[in-house]
Design goal:
2 copies of one chain form a homodimer. Chain A has 187 residues and is of the alpha+beta class. Helices cover 24% and strands 33% of the residues of chain A. Chain A has an 8-stranded antiparallel sheet.
Chain lengths: 187, 187
């Protein structure tokens, strides 16, 4: 059972309308007007300006207790009211990847509270993580968020909290793509 | 910096001479006479019967203390005396992958002693792990071993120890390919 591969293609048109692309660190992305989300290459996108892909994979840091906390509060993608979307591609430094699992876990959760911070913003901010490092992609993680317009300031707070953590010291490339999403991505 | 992709192609000829292919569980592999190891698709292999690929990626369970223990004792690939090689492709069950990180770690090391067992056989049995799950491969891990002919019984013991662990209850496909390797794979 292989992991589903999700692609995000930016182009002149797309399933969503891009409102901003902000480069937080490292190299940016070319401007696009729309982003189309594909599952295993369907639908095909003609002439994308860029395509970022990732797979939905197993959890890498989350404990059983944290999974239970998440499952109690999280919401699914494709809620009708969640017409705002955002894609945050990030890459981490070689120092991060060279660290052993227990050290990365300690930075991720015990010191940066990544999961704990995310849970505070549930169920309003729904998200799905895509892993890209092992498939030869320019970014290593693509996180897709969906929320209603009235929760945009909450989303901004979530990003500010995460970006102020020790974990983010290891992020060496990050772009923030905001969209208005008419027909939300299929969950 | 993307992960190097290593391919193992089985065919009528190859960089190594296959002495046996044993299916431990699940579907087997077609018989081949030789296996060629490629890094990022080089060299090209004409008409392979099968090709298995994986990426060299970050550690998923190993702690800093275990890394130090490994580094103190492990040997590199491509030792001139290590003319025996073995490739063990495995796949784990959906129950494994659906478990949270702390539960998988507990099975992997606290209860099955995966790293501890491996360390006992160092430096004689050198190995390299390749991750295949996220790149749409039929197997999820490809472990490549190299050892001198006089250490073959030690290698058999290593496999027997690992296969008797709780971790191996989650392995639902496993093939064991043994080879004689004239020019050892580049490390």
């Amino acid at each position: 059972m292989s992991s589903p591969r999700i692609s995000f293609s930016g182009g002149r048109i797309g399933g969503s309308c891009v409102s901003s692309i902000t480069t937080l660190c490292g190299e940016g992305l070319l401007p696009v007007d729309g982003v189309t989300v594909q599952v295993n290459g369907v639908p095909s996108v003609p002439d994308p300006i860029w395509t970022l892909a990732g797979v939905i994979s197993n959890l890498r840091y989350t404990t059983g207790r944290e999974v239970a906390d998440l499952q109690r509060t999280q919401s699914s993608l494709a809620r009708p009211e969640a017409t705002c979307a955002s894609l945050i591609p990030i890459r981490k430094s070689p120092i991060w990847w060279g660290s052993p699992q227990d050290e990365r876990r300690a930075i991720y959760e015990e010191r940066s509270r990544h999961t704990t911070i995310g849970i505070k913003y549930l169920p309003h901010i729904a998200r799905r993580l895509h892993h890209s490092r092992d498939i030869g992609q320019p970014f290593e993680f693509l996180t897709w968020f969906e929320f209603a317009p009235e929760h945009e300031s909450m989303y901004v707070n979530l990003l500010e909290e995460l970006r102020s953590t020790e974990e983010w010291c290891y992020v060496d490339r990050e772009v923030d793509i905001r969209m208005v999403w008419e027909a939300s991505v299929a969950a």
